[in-house]
Amino acid sequence: MTRGLNKAMIIGSLARNPEMRITPSGKPVTTFSVGTSRTWNSSDGQKHTETEWFNIVAWGELADRCSQSLSKGQQVYIEGRLQTRKWEDTEGTKHSSIEIVASEMIMLDSRFENKNLAGHDSSQADRFESEDSVY
Q1: Which pLDDT score, from 0 to 100, does residue 111 have?
Q2: How far apart are CA 93 and CA 37, in angstroms?
Q3: pTM for this entry
């Protein structure tokens, strides 16, 4: 049997503050968006910039860390897997969305490094991994 690979790695800035909620089963989940930009020059010499937006979902302890540690504008590294979510609205219209289910988060923006977090040792790298392998 062949194995597949579903891995996404992005570096970008948060579009908004993370939003955390607790599922009916008591598990924390945090969602936020990260924008990644690329810049290039066209053949006529004009500079272009394009931003791609990614919806991020973090679960468990990683959800707590993202909620406590991240804020709008902060630059982060996110690693995880792509997941397609499908639903139907009240009018019967089908929708789908692709999101990254985070397994690791690293804070990159030095402006936010000194943020005082309860129980966070600032001498350690600001790297957080999900303890859950299955959600």
Answers
A1: 62
A2: 31
A3: 0.78
